[in-house]
Write a structure and sequence with these properties.
This protein is 3% helix and 60% strand. The protein is built from one helix and six strands; from the N terminus they run αββββββ.
Length: 169
């Protein structure tokens, strides 16, 4: 979009619409499950496999010009990774990397009552377009696990996801 809109020319106090779609920052909640198995090598190195899935309700809606609203939502995401670490007594610092996926929804809407040209130059009236997409990418991170007993482990982990970039029209 960019440049002056018809609305801004009629009322100079209105801001120009942004150039291009707005950046989305979905927020909300998520929770999930993780299944992992570690092989302890004689040299104290540990190699593991991890699969996790999280279910989410994370979304964002941003204005994009006059009446248009752009929306994004994450319903679920997960990873399939390997882990390598070095065990020292009951502590295991490790690095991890693997594949990542996310179930994404995106949309664009124009409300009832919008006049010709305010949402799309060639379309009049309201619309509500939505679609979903399974995004595939990669993840890398690290963490630490501490064995409290032989059956209970606590830990902290950081993961960086990269799902690439997509353009939706």
């Amino acid at each position: 979009h960019g440049g002056k809109s018809f609305n801004a020319e009629m009322d100079p106090t209105l801001a120009d619409p942004p150039a291009g779609p707005p950046t989305q920052y979905p927020d909300g909640w998520f929770g999930g499950v993780q299944i992992a198995y570690d092989w302890h090598l004689p040299s104290r190195f540990v190699i593991g496999a991890i699969v996790d899935a999280s279910f989410a309700d994370m979304e964002d809606v941003q204005p994009d010009g006059n009446f248009i609203k752009q929306s994004s939502k994450i319903d679920s995401f997960g990873t399939a990774r390997i882990r390598i670490g070095y065990a020292e007594d009951r502590v295991l610092p490790y690095l991890t990397a693997g594949l990542a996926w996310a179930n994404l929804q995106y949309g664009e809407s124009c409300p009832e009552g919008a006049q010709f040209g305010f949402c799309r130059p060639a379309a009049a009236g309201p619309y509500n377009n939505k679609d979903s997409h399974l995004a595939l990418g990669w993840t890398v991170g690290g963490g630490i696990r501490v064995a409290l007993t032989s059956q209970w482990i606590v830990g902290a982990e950081y993961l960086h996801f990269d799902m690439g970039s997509d353009t939706y029209e």
